[in-house]
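Q: My labmate handed me this sequence with no annotations at all. I'd like to see what the chain might look like in three dimensions before we decide whether it's worth expressing. Could you predict it?
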Amino acid sequence: MKTTTLLVIETKHAEIPSFAMDLQKKGFDVHIAPNGNKAVSLLKSISPNLVVVNAASLRSTGIRICQAVRAKDAKLPIILILDEDIQVNKDLADAVLLLPFTVQKLSNRIKPLLPGEGKNVIHVGPIRLDLDKRRVRCMGKSTKLTPRLVTLLNLLMEKHGEVVEREPLFKKAWETNYTGDTRTLDVHISWLRQAIELDPDNPKLLKTVRGVGYRLDV
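A: Here is what I predict for the chain of 218 residues:
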């Protein structure tokens, strides 16, 4: 089973429980942000599966933080933790938990919100490719892919760190032995960069190796 990455937004207070360390003990890959600004800046680099906003520890309602996260990634699941019954917009978070509760209860609420974890989700670096839903998540972006793009990205992820030559890549992705015109491959690579790169014109992940092929650097 692949490790689930969580972004937990909280600070430590003696009277308010901290959940980050306990979630880490349960096997989650936990990244901690002390405030909303830091959390938003981390979204691009860690590409979390889910965000936990411990608003109780921040002495806030968590509304602005949830809105900031939603603005960056509308599909990213959010769990909001409050220490009192504050009325919040139902679209603000996917789940709202009121203290007190156990870390096991929090873990139980996290699992149903995870986007398609299982054997058909491939994780390589910040890239998460859901083969069933044909969706890729990377650097805070979530993009629906065509079947061809899924096949192409899957092939590159399997060989990440290695140079994949153009002709073999084209043959496998298009299931053909004809390689007389592989310009369509360049177009599809451009579309993949739109999906996974922060700056598609200056790619940091999907590199072109001149005269040879492509390499996924993650």
